[in-house]
Amino acid sequence: MTISPLNALLRWVVWAALVFLVVGPIYWVVSASFKETAEIIRPVPTLWPHRVVFENYAYLFTSTKYPRYLLNSLIVAAATMMVTTAITTIAGYAIYRLRVWGADWMSRAILLIYLAPTTLLLVPIYSLLAAVGLVNTLAGLVIVNVAFASPFCVWLLRGFYEAIPISLHEAAEVDGAGPMTIFWRIYLPLLAPGIGTIVLYAFIYSWTEFAFASQLIVTDGLKTLPMGLGALVGSYYINWGLLMAGASLATLPAVLLFAIVGRYFVRGLTSGAVIG
Predict the structure, then answer these.
(1) Range 139-144 contact pairs with CB under 8 angstroms and sequence separation of 24 or more
(2) Contact, 227 vs 141, CB < 8 A?
């Protein structure tokens, strides 16, 4: 099929616009982190700093608690990612393959948790965590993140489980394999694209979560990165260079994780979309 020059040009323009919309803001943030504040707030912005400065990054690590905020977010996001992955893969296996009691009902109702606005759940969740002494702890924040990330991840795994031929499961049962043996030796290797997808989702969800963190964490030394970036904004003055430096570094863990599991994520978007 031959593409006319006009259609080719139109496609190029659309792709260029999409790239600009996605990459443009990221480039602006990164480039601004190497600028002086006076240059950032100029009425006419510059594409590249007139004088590259590293003071923003130096001040960020020497005169603020940004390293601590970064470490706290890494701990919470990594723990949320691992716990969510372990729970949802097993839960998906039970719901979509073992067909445990109530599986059909759970598969339909699993996303109901997202119907309630987050603000309505702040008080009851705070009360529950306070009753067990988990307010103002990273563990309590991990529990909340897992509770909110898991339902979507279980639902997301449905397509991956149903894309695996049931004949493999039945053949393993005929050979005498138990449910967990079948899960570890058959399903887990074939679920690599789905696991990569939920790993990325759980990490980014926890990495960017702010609403519950701002209410559950009180001690300054336990604050996560979104809260730490908010603390860089003063009441009367905003150091834009410092804020852009913090925002630029905040994207690195997510970018590195995507570089590692991105091929599974992209494959998962297509594999999980086909059922049957």
Answers:
(1) 140/216, 141/76, 141/209, 141/212, 141/213, 141/216, 141/217, 141/224, 142/76, 142/79, 142/80, 142/83, 142/206, 144/212, 144/216
(2) no
List the one residue out of 10, 29, 22, 3 whose CA is nearest residue 247.
29
Domain count, the chain: 1
Instruction: Name 238's bridge partners.
Output: 233
Burial code (b: 16+ CB inside 10 Å, e: under 16) for 140-167 equals bbbbbbbbbbbbbbbbbbbbbbebbeee
CATH code for position 94: 1.10.3720.10
pLDDT tens digits, residue range 21-77?
A: 888 888 888 988 898 888 888 877 777 888 888 999 999 898 889 999 999 999 999
Q: Does 14 reside within a domain?
A: no
Partners of 233 in the β-ladder: 238
This prediction's pTM:
0.84
Domain of 94 in residue numbering reads as 63-270
Angle, CA 275 vertex, CA 182 and CA 81 arms, to 5°: 60
What are residue 238's phi and psi, to 5 degrees? -120, 120
Tokens 């979507």 found at: 152
Helix axes 138-163, 240-271, angle to 10 degrees: 30
Pick from 148, 157, 188: nearest CA to 88:
157
